[in-house]
Design goal:
The complex is a heterodimer of chains A (470) and B (455). With 470 residues, chain A is an alpha+beta fold. Chain A has four domains: 87 residues, Uridine Diphospho-n-acetylenolpyruvylglucosamine Reductase, domain 2 (2-Layer Sandwich); 118 residues, Uridine Diphospho-n-acetylenolpyruvylglucosamine Reductase, domain 3 (2-Layer Sandwich), CATH 3.30.465; 111 residues, Alpha-Beta Plaits, CATH 3.30.70; 85 residues, Alpha-Beta Plaits (2-Layer Sandwich). Chain A contains 15 helices and 18 strands. Chain B is 34% helix and 22% strand. Classes of the chains: A alpha+beta (470), B alpha+beta (455). The structure holds flavin-adenine dinucleotide. Flavin-adenine dinucleotide (FAD) binds next to strand 3, helix 5 and strand 10 of chain A.
């Protein structure tokens, strides 16, 4: 089928105004928040499951590759159409279909923005818990595809723990329903298998999520340390003490300095590291718990522990953490953001090694991360005009990843494999492990038209690192 | 012939060929029972079984062999109980990696030394193995707060038909590297592979743990109290409802769980398990009690220490508590949106009464899980019992589906399984499930016929 007829057929499904095909309209759909790009041939904006089904039927009949797209905030290149074809943009499927407070469930379309869902329930005191730092713009569909995490996932679990049912359009256009509002259904847990499959098994068009009452009380502490290792030891000590805070985030000196220059969150710039600790739950006993945390910090040589006295102070403490990525983006023209995870009792050892690696390759490294889960985000600034420096930054990044894996860790805690780390999958999975995953893919996506080129190693592929500032 | 090959793999002392009646599945007696000692042996057995097209039934302690449809064939029962080691325990990381045949109780005992536990409280607490618990997605009252099997398993090792060994997930608590295969194997009833190793998320033991029991004259008030709590800022670990039959069996078996006779009046029993810091446990008891009073509770009781433990042990082990005679009991589990529990309870009672039956019912109500127990004896002999029960189950199943839930028969006599599918409909994702089965077990040697729709 020629391009013109394909446009006509897509336009018949979604309306002519909902099909983009002119190069200037397609430009923004080459990217997500990863360092690469590829041009799609079409972008379509469906509004219903049936439309998505029809689009995929056309695509599979014509053997045109396609990629679902939420907000394009993904960091591992998940939404980049590496083989061209159709970008199925879900931004207009953004309705909250049902909120069932009594059963604590909501049913939403995939294009709903994460934070909008919580806002919609605010009056009733409810919220949707997974809170990626990008929650003002990322979509629930994108969260499902990446199994996104966030600071508060430490105590309550990541996206997969909050998703109970899906409507999915399979790559051949068939519509299936998995799970539901209840907890258990007979058969294989396809919902669990689909969450985190990075859009390679089909397009999710409806999602049933858990919603919960907001906590009665919140207490936020900021502890600063004169050594990064003391902070890391404190994290391990808090976990080992039997307390699981709602959030336990860490930032090191380069990150603190960037944040202070940008956001003035009131972090002590002389500190080598800060821990942001949030306790949630009932107000009863909260003070005693906070005191215990303060004591653990002090016994690990904290130079200062601030406890937010009101909501305004609390927001102030979080402000620095929330804008950290943006703040660091201001001091360098580009950076490489890693997402490895290590066992929490290895944090101290791994962090010291990360600093050694940075020194060895003469690159900077800033750490802003979900310490409580062991989910590191070493961030290596890159000067794109300096080829040699970029090369060193990338090599340092590789070594950091390998060091995490050696410590018993994994490649990605929340950003996904995408086309960023697919070549590295053999570092943690052997051929047989990957074959088992490929069997799953063969069932759902036998022709590999649905988001091709992601997750699995594709030998011989070489991608351009673009000049786009981020 | 096969015996010889199997014996070469595991040693003669690890094979049983006689008196295998107790390993029968729905009356089908295996030819051989094997007890491999390590994953390599499991792999060699799976290679042989695939070559010879032997139907393999994986088994832990055998507490859930009643689950599933009648198998098409049973050749070898593969018992995992000798794979029972704790491979790694990292208290400071709150994770552990164990072999699949380890008993949950043995794991818990070891974790307790470090003031930690694996936050899963499925039935058969003293016999069940971790592998069996994961393969059957077996959960308990604590899932309201701690989550289900799928939320607590972070890594898995599986032996596939043909003998290939794979790993998925990892040992860290957060991981999005590749597909989340843990979820595929969880609840797959050993139809895709044999689980030999599991990595688990652990929790610290709570500082305090107490029970509040309240008695209501109507189900409705108890059910609404559950919803009031679960949609509030309170953080109960479990919220249960027991009908009068369930309470009677429990308190008859152990009168001490009602020490002050606080819940002696007839009616429905509400139970909350409250855990955490002592201050917030006390506060929740006071608050829930007050809410209960506003709803006209007729009695209250607080259980602590041993009594608390005993009470939850009985709830957790409900199949043992409520099936006076296991071979003569039908146990069904409904999973529903939590708001539907009350309606479901009432309607099931009516359906039972229409046949002159009064099922024993209790519910992990905060989680929308309802268990229904029928004693076969309740129907007089001479009447076609199986027709009556298959009628009742169809009615209850329709009701569950109408409420957007599901109904699974967890235990029933083989004759009943001939009349009703124990799983019920799977819906439009069945085709995908069948294709997955074909990919992972092309010759259909694993538990053939026991899972959904002939898988
Ligand atoms: C500043 C910043 C901060 C971030 N912080 C976090 C964080 O704290 N935690 C975290 O986990 N991530 C974080 N991210 C990463 C990103 O926001 C998440 O991965 C998010 O889930 C992506 O959502 P999206 O809507 O932007 O998806 P996109 O980027 O559009 O797509 C991501 C993937 O999902 C697939 N997809 C999208 N919609 C569907 C659908 N309906 N059906 C099937 N597949 C679909 C796409 O094909 C693609 O593979 C951050 C990103 C940025 C830029």
């Amino acid at each position: 089928m020629d391009k013109k007829s394909l446009i006509d057929e897509l336009a018949q499904i979604v309306g002519v105004e909902n099909v983009f095909h002119e190069p200037e309209d397609l430009i923004t759909y080459q990217y997500d928040a990863y360092l690469s790009r590829a041009m799609p041939d079409f972008v379509v904006f469906p509004t219903t499951t049936e439309q998505v089904s029809k689009i995929l039927k056309v695509a599979s009949r014509e053997k045109v590759p396609f990629v679902a797209r939420g907000a394009g905030t993904g960091i591992s290149g998940g939404a980049i159409p590496v083989k061209g074809g159709i970008v199925v943009a879900l931004s207009r499927m953004n309705k909250i279909l049902e909120i069932d407070f009594e059963s604590r469930r909501a049913r939403v379309q995939p294009g709903v923005i994460n934070l909008d869902l919580s806002h919609a329930m605010k009056d009733k005191g409810f919220h949707y818990i997974p809170d990626p730092a990008s929650q003002q713009s990322c979509t629930i569909g994108g969260n499902v595809a990446e199994n996104a995490g966030g600071p508060h996932c430490l105590a309550y679990g990541v996206t997969t723990n909050h998703v109970l049912g899906l409507t999915v359009v399979l790559p051949n256009g068939e519509i299936i329903h998995t799970g539901g509002k209840a907890l258990d259904y007979p058969g294989y847990d396809l919902t669990g298998l689909l969450v985190g499959s990075e859009g390679t098994l089909g397009i999710v068009t409806e999602i049933i999520v858990r919603i919960e009452h907001r906590p009665e009380a919140v207490k936020t502490l900021l502890a600063s340390f004169s050594s990064m290792l003391d902070a890391a030891k404190t994290v391990s000590a808090i976990i080992a003490s039997g307390t699981i805070p709602a959030a336990l985030e860490m930032m090191d000196k380069p990150a603190i300095e960037a944040v202070e220059a940008f956001a003035h969150a009131g972090y002590p710039v002389e500190a080598a590291a800060v821990l942001l600790i949030e306790l949630e739950g009932l107000k009863d006993g909260m003070d005693r718990l906070a005191k215990k945390i303060v004591e653990i910090c002090q016994s690990h040589k904290a130079i200062e522990v601030k406890v937010a006295q009101n909501e305004q102070e609390r927001m102030q403490l979080w402000k620095g953490r929330k804008c950290a990525a943006g703040a660091i983006g201001r001091i360098c023209n580009k950076y490489y953001l890693h997402d490895c995870v290590v066992p929490r009792n290895k944090l101290v050892a791994v962090l010291s090694e990360i600093y050694q690696i940075a020194e060895k390759y003469q690159v900077q490294v800033a750490n802003v991360f979900h310490a409580g889960d062991g989910n590191l985000h070493p961030l290596v600034p890159m000067d794109m005009s300096d080829r040699d420096q970029v090369e060193r930054a990338l090599r340092a990044g590789d070594e950091i990843l390998k060091c995490c894996i050696q410590a018993g860790g994994t490649l990605s805690g929340e950003h996904g494999i995408g086309l960023e780390k697919n070549e590295l999958m053999p570092l943690i999975f052997n051929e047989a492990d990957l074959t088992a995953m490929k069997k799953v893919k063969a069932v759902f996506n036998p022709e590999d038209l649905c988001n091709p080129g992601k997750i699995f190693p594709t030998p011989g592929r070489c991608l351009e690192v673009t000049q786009r500032p981020r | 012939m096969i015996f010889k090959q199997v014996a070469e793999i595991v040693g003669e002392s690890n094979c049983l060929t006689e008196a295998l009646q107790s390993y029968a599945v729905d009356g089908i007696v295996p030819k051989l029972v094997v007890f491999p000692e390590n994953v390599e042996q499991v792999s060699a057995l799976m290679k042989l079984a695939d070559q010879e097209r032997l139907a393999v039934v994986p088994r832990g302690s055998g507490t859930k062999m009643s689950l599933g449809n009648i198998p098409r064939q049973v050749d070898v029962v593969l018992v995992l109980k000798k794979l029972n080691k704790i491979l790694e325990y990292e208290p400071d990381d709150l994770t552990a990696t164990v072999e699949a045949g380890i008993l949950l109780t043995d794991l818990q005992r070891c974790l307790k030394e470090k003031n930690q536990f694996f936050p899963l409280d499925p039935p058969f607490s003293s016999e069940a193995t971790l592998g069996g618990i994961v393969a059957t997605n077996s959960n308990g009252p604590g899932r309201l707060f701690h989550g289900s099997v799928r939320d607590l398993v972070v890594g898995i090792r599986v032996v596939h038909p043909g003998g290939v060994i794979t790993r998925a997930g990892g040992k860290v608590v957060k991981n999005v590297s590749g597909y989340d295969m843990n979820k595929l194997y969880t609840g797959s009833l050993g139809t895709l592979g044999i689980i030999t190793e599991l990595s688990l998320k652990l929790r610290p033991l709570p500082e305090v743990s107490k029970t509040l029991l309240l008695r209501f004259s109507s189900l409705s008030e108890a059910a609404r109290l559950v919803l009031q709590i679960s949609t509030s800022e309170l953080l109960a670990t479990s919220l249960e409802i027991l009908d009068s039959g369930a309470w009677e069996i429990m308190s008859r078996a152990d009168p001490s769980i009602n020490p002050g006779q606080g819940v002696a009046a007839p009616g429905v029993t509400f139970a909350a398990r409250l855990e955490g810091l002592s201050e917030n446990v006390e506060r929740q008891i006071i608050q829930i009690r007050e809410w209960g009073q506003q709803r006209g509770t007729t009695g209250a009781e607080v259980l602590v220490g041993d009594l608390h433990d005993k009470f939850w042990e009985k709830i957790q082990n409900h199949p043992q508590t409520f099936s006076v005679d296991a071979s003569n009991t039908i146990r069904c589990k409904a999973s529903l949106p939590a708001s539907k529990v009350e309606d479901f309870f009432q309607t099931v009672k009516k359906i039972g009464h229409s046949q002159n039956l009064d099922p024993v019912m209790f519910s992990h109500a905060g989680s929308g899980i309802v268990y229904i127990y029928f004693g076969l004896e309740a129907v007089p002999t001479g009447v076609d019992r199986m027709s009556i029960f298959s009628y009742i189950i169809r009615e209850i199943r329709n009701l569950s589906l109408q409420f957007e839930g599901s109904l699974v028969i967890e235990a029933a006599p083989t004759e009943l399984k001939k009349k009703v599918d124990v799983w019920g409909p799977v819906g439009d994702s069945l085709k995908i499930m069948k294709l997955l089965k074909e990919q992972f077990d092309p010759h259909g040697i694993l538990n053939p016929g026991r899972f959904i729709e002939g898988i």
